[in-house]
Amino acid sequence: MSQPLTIPARRGKAHRVAKGETVRVINTHGEQVIDTWAFNAEDLTEFMSMEHSRAHMLKIIPVVGDILRTNRRRPILTLVEDTSGGIHDTIIAACDRHRYAFLGVEGHHDNCEDNLHAAMREIGLEAPETPSPLNLFMNIPVHPDRSVSFEAPVSTPGSFVRLKAEMDLVIAFSACPQDILPINGVGHLPTEAHFVVEP
Amino acid sequence: MSQPLTIPARRGKAHRVAKGETVRVINTHGEQVIDTWAFNAEDLTEFMSMEHSRAHMLKIIPVVGDILRTNRRRPILTLVEDTSGGIHDTIIAACDRHRYAFLGVEGHHDNCEDNLHAAMREIGLEAPETPSPLNLFMNIPVHPDRSVSFEAPVSTPGSFVRLKAEMDLVIAFSACPQDILPINGVGHLPTEAHFVVEP
């Protein structure tokens, strides 16, 4: 197994992944939401899209075997293993500076949107926009009355998902810095997480 | 009441709307899905976003009184009246040429993505991307097992929604040309629809 790479607490990390490799995303401390994006390495304007993926998976949360698709409806990642309890989110936007202003924060607050763009720049790339992310480990139940709520993760320390790359791609993560809502656990404490790229 | 404007069958239509005006979107024949977008008239890179709206409405389908927000989390439209039965969709992407290729269509098929961009160009504007649309009258139930299905509309002829503009905006519609899935009724017959801008 390759060396685990760190997604620092409240920060992002991007990495190139070759077609056929898998990425194990580890919820090291168990309650950390990881916003996840994937871009076609050859053309960053093609990227993983939740609204296109849902139309083909016919689900709002992927399960093992499901294919995540791009905005051109091509497979980009397949969920091949999930020890986390299977609760993830595809319907909520990445947090951004407007989100924290809305929640009453004055001045700067770390956020997933800025983390995506900073992580991409760290490896010399510019994300063309902020796609709606695959929010790994995020617990947003959709209730029978069509309401949604923000709940603490159900995942446990060391649990993980494994995603297989269906094309050469750039994967980007943000360890969500949300510390006002309980989305990263009732302790409201954002933590680091890890990932491993495997052949 | 102003003259109703036509959204032609299988085609798009865009229109400028001033802050405070309302737009009545009429399902003239009762079973037509209308993909709907809204852009800030002063800056088209700010637009109605389903993933941001859901995070604030705390629902996957807006009801009367709910505010649709932009990708900067500002109010852009409020749903102020709905006689259609209240079934709409916020989770499925606009259909596009890739969708019809996936469904086995060879060659050209009208699609909502192309309709958005053509409608904007018709009034001298260029949409910066294809945001995930508010799919009025579209019936995509989310089942308790988190699966979704494509069903016929529940709306009736002449039923409508009324949307209030919360900023000066450009609204764009596409009368969805989907004739393979039953999303525009079990007759699979895309039709025209109408809208009226009212003070």
Automatic annotation (TrEMBL), chains A, B:
InterPro entries named in the record: DUF1989
UniProt-recorded name of the protein: Urea carboxylase-associated family protein
Species name: Jiella endophytica
Domain of life (superkingdom): Bacteria
Residues of the DUF1989 domain: 6-170
